[in-house]
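Supplementary Note 3. Input sequence used for the single-chain structure prediction.
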Amino acid sequence: MPRIQSDKQSLHIVLFEPEIPPNTGNIARLCACASVSLHLVHPLGFDLSDKQLRRAGLDYWAWLEVKEYPSWRSLKEGLDTKGQWFALSTKAHTSIWDASFQTGDVLVFGPESRGLPAHILEHLSSIKIPMRDDAPVRSLNLSSACSIVTYEALRQINSPIKS
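The predicted structure, written as discrete structure tokens, is reproduced below.
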């Protein structure tokens, strides 16, 4: 698998074992609009030809750099970046508002039903999106969370996206 050079991408989004096709389609659309590369780590909970996945991504697939990896290890070996790797987790203590994002950073999101496994969390800096703590809410939808963190990171690194 060819190595992706981080100097060509302002940001990398990794979906580790995503399960829900429309979420991945929405994130693909986000990546196309924001000029961010998308990395999918297998196994996926769906086929990439899934109708819901394609519908959510609209006709933006041609504007998207998406790479697939058979495992976490192959992703770590195949994604050549000098950027920081951030794990998104509701259990993190550091807020995205306190993180310092830079060009080439990697944002790693886990599967919708269980989040990132311990073997990944223990090797990455974990950050979270602040949420209320006075109600029994667990997490945001994956595509919503991905959008929030992506645009905060792009804002910090002064992405050249035109408004």
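Residues 4-156 form a domain with the Alpha/beta knot fold (CATH 3.40.1280.10). The chain has a mean pLDDT of 88.
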